[in-house]
Hints:
With 94 residues, the chain is mainly α. The chain has a domain at 47-94. The protein is 90% helix and 0% strand. The chain is rod-shaped and about 110 Å long.
Amino acid sequence: MRKIILAAAIAGSALSLAACSESTEDAAGAAVEGAAADAGSNVEAAGEAVETGLDDAGNAISSTVDAAGEATDEAGNNIEADVQDESTAEAARD
């Protein structure tokens, strides 16, 4: 008896799945397409944010390197001025 009821339930489920209307299938397809478009937009926005962050980091590194170079030049001029007993302006010209 249980097997007959189980078989009837399975057959009923199969028929209900097969009986999905075309509009239901279209709506499901549209929902999937919308979700895919949203995911694509989110990926693009994340990529732009990463690119902007990398640009900012590169600019900060470049500025730091420039400042370090200037500080090194100034320190070298100060040392040269002390060693050669001249002003830092004279050392910078040399």
